[in-house]
């Protein structure tokens, strides 16, 4: 493991989710499905959903303020805000700019990052690079999604999966580079299979209300079984490669925090990495798949549950539509 003398680290973490809960039993009344089927195939029991009239920026701001408070960093000290999201409130302005205004980060630049469910890992890798070049910078990363707004509630193959929420971290230079901070990351993509997971409507090819496109294309569409196969390969390969090139083995990992897309994908990875259950963090049963928000939500709850202590070696791994994939190794 090669450690740079300047390492970026997570200085504080926050999360915020809507209070409205949509259970599997609620879904039974909306589409032909069952609590039993959803739990067996996905591990999901319930998810959080925005109320009508609410927007995800509200939760992105709430999560950010908590992360800032925990990091003991004031909004004025933030140099850059990166929001990983595929469901910003608007296309203009970006979600990051709404967060910048909401938290009064008057000295920050702000942009959104689109890498589907891998977005948080992509943002972490970007922040790491900025901090290595500008060691005094403080960067706010937000993973926030309003997937309920892009879910086809008549499609039982997808509507059981998604949820809304926001997680945020403040990144800065590690004060103990020998013990804490990002070690390495992998970012990847495979566009050859893009047709397996799409949200075509509303982009510039098919602008909103374009009559050429069937209505269901204005929502997330997925060939679940095929995505499942690709996802398992991507997360296994990424995890093993990251460990190998840092001369680490799965025994060195204190906690694996994977993107929460499907419990069966997480279980597959756990078995391939030969990790005991208590070394893999899972909270998919409460939130479903929240795309770019899922890893910060899991990190937040892992810390709260006492599963993450300063200096612990953790592995983050994600995949998502595109396909995109990514992994990060860090000392908490
Ligand atoms: N309730 C009951 N039956 C259902 C439901 C449902 N909600 N959904 C599908 N079925 C039926 C199907 O119609 C099918 O019936 P058939 O055999 O008569 O044709 C049967 O159940 C099995 O369907 P599969 O699609 O093969 O089910 P599978 O075990 O693959 O589970 C799932 C589906 C949960 C979607 C799984 O494939 C999956 O998790 N895929 C990966 C999804 C993912 O990780 N996406 C990540 C990216 S998300 C993003 O980027 C925003």
From TrEMBL:
Record's GO cellular component terms: cytoplasm
Enzyme Commission number(s) from the entry: 2.3.1.180
Catalytic reactions on record: malonyl-[ACP] + acetyl-CoA + H(+) = 3-oxobutanoyl-[ACP] + CO2 + CoA
Signal peptide (from-to): none
Acetylation listed as a keyword: no
Annotated region (ACP-binding), positions in chain: 260-264
Predominant location category: cytoplasm
Residues in Beta-ketoacyl-[acyl-carrier-protein] synthase III C-terminal domain copies: 243-332
CDD domains on file: KAS_III (cd00830)
Active site: 117, 259, 289
Localization (cell): Cytoplasm
Keyword Transmembrane on entry: no
All copies of domain Beta-ketoacyl-[acyl-carrier-protein] synthase III N-terminal, residue ranges: 111-191
Key words, A-Z: Acyltransferase, Cytoplasm, Fatty acid biosynthesis, Fatty acid metabolism, Lipid biosynthesis, Lipid metabolism, Multifunctional enzyme, Transferase
GO term, biological process aspect, one: fatty acid biosynthetic process
GO MF entry, a single one: 3-oxoacyl-[acyl-carrier-protein] synthase activity
Pathway entry: Lipid metabolism; fatty acid biosynthesis
Family, as annotated: Belongs to the thiolase-like superfamily. FabH family.
Task performed by this protein: Catalyzes the condensation reaction of fatty acid synthesis by the addition to an acyl acceptor of two carbons from malonyl-ACP. Catalyzes the first condensation reaction which initiates fatty acid synthesis and may therefore play a role in governing the total rate of fatty acid production. Possesses both acetoacetyl-ACP synthase and acetyl transacylase activities. Its substrate specificity determines the biosynthesis of branched-chain and/or straight-chain of fatty acids.
Oligomer and partners: Homodimer.
Domains as described in the record: The last Arg residue of the ACP-binding site is essential for the weak association between ACP/AcpP and FabH.
Protein name: Beta-ketoacyl-[acyl-carrier-protein] synthase III
Lineage, broadest ranks: Bacteria, Pseudomonadati, Thermodesulfobacteriota, Thermodesulfobacteria, Thermodesulfobacteriales
